[in-house]
Amino acid sequence: MTPVPAPSHDPGPDGGPGGSEPAAITSTGGRGPDHRLRPVDTDGIDITDRPVRTGGGERVRRADRARQVADVLRQQIHTGTFAHALPNEGELAAEFAVSRNTVRDALALLKDERLIERAPKVGTHVAQRKYDHGLDTLRGLKETLRGHGEVRNEVRAARLEDPPPAVARRLCLAPGERAVYLERLRYLGDLPLSLDLTYLAPDIGEAVLTRDLESNDIFALIEEISGGPLGSADLVLEAITADTHSAATLQMPEGGALLLLERLTRLDDGRPVDLEYIRMRGDRITMRGSLFRPADASDWRLIR
């Protein structure tokens, strides 16, 4: 009978072996011999993404487990769980109850996102952290990033113009009424974070044009000019890829991830005055908020 070779144990950046594949991501704890079925390839073929049948009967791919690990580690990186270095592969494998190979796959995903750096004999370190941008409060970028450094604006366009009809309708402009158009590249220190395209109602916008646009949030200027607080905003958030122009402007790779925030902001009396299209670097910004389930959301009864 032909002997079955053992699974590969290729060393990783921290010098540890590859290890075999456990069944699925679980909390740290004991795992007996019946906890998993190990995949074995008698022909030496790479089994990186081969399905594995678990004790519960479901089939799980190593790539799926790697994404599970990466999701947890990504959140820990964002929240500062790791000051500088991540635990080594062996420690992560034990924590997530997976093999070293799965850990390496997970870390490769985070490296591709430029969140971590890896090197032999050095280990895995946090390369950069993302900045939180709130979704549950109406704040400008300068207000949001207070405490992280100086936010400054490079004003690329500031003019009164005929807006596209769709923009005029959303701002409730009269026929033939013009709007103020602003385009700003926004930096945190020397790091470009977002490219903001803004349309303002003319009575507010023309006054905004006389203010310091390089140092201030538009929200603060609107409240100063209107003499009252902003009220509410409608927003749409979606993921897009960076086109050639946006990538060059934001100093990021073409095709890289952008967060596109479309936001229509109203004064306290409900009048819309500010329509923005904000392209934020996906490798530098994360959207965060707290949501509450309404009291009637759990009413499952069918209405006939």
UniProtKB/TrEMBL annotation:
Region of interest (Disordered), ranges = 1-59
Q: Which UniProt keywords apply?
A: DNA-binding, Transcription, Transcription regulation
Q: Which GO terms describe its molecular function?
A: DNA binding; DNA-binding transcription factor activity
- Is Metal-binding among the key words of this record? no
Q: Where is the HTH gntR-type domain?
A: 63-129
Instruction: Name one matching Pfam family.
Output: GntR
Q: Which domain of life is it from?
A: Bacteria
| InterPro entries (UniProt xref) | Bact_HTH_transcr_reg, Chorismate_lyase_/UTRA_dom_sf, Tscrpt_reg_HTH_GntR, UTRA, WH-like_DNA-bd_sf, WH_DNA-bd_sf
State where composition is biased (Basic and acidic residues): 32-59
Write out the biased-composition intervals (Pro residues).
1-10
Does this UniProt record's set of keywords contain DNA-binding? yes
PANTHER family tied to this protein: GNTR-FAMILY TRANSCRIPTIONAL REGULATOR (PTHR44846:SF17), MANNOSYL-D-GLYCERATE TRANSPORT/METABOLISM SYSTEM REPRESSOR MNGR-RELATED (PTHR44846)
UniProt-listed GO biological process terms: negative regulation of DNA-templated transcription
Can you say what this protein is called?
A: HTH gntR-type domain-containing protein
Instruction: Return the Gene3D superfamilies for the record.
Output: Chorismate lyase-like, Winged helix-like DNA-binding domain superfamily/Winged helix DNA-binding domain
Organism whose genome encodes this protein: Nocardia aurantia
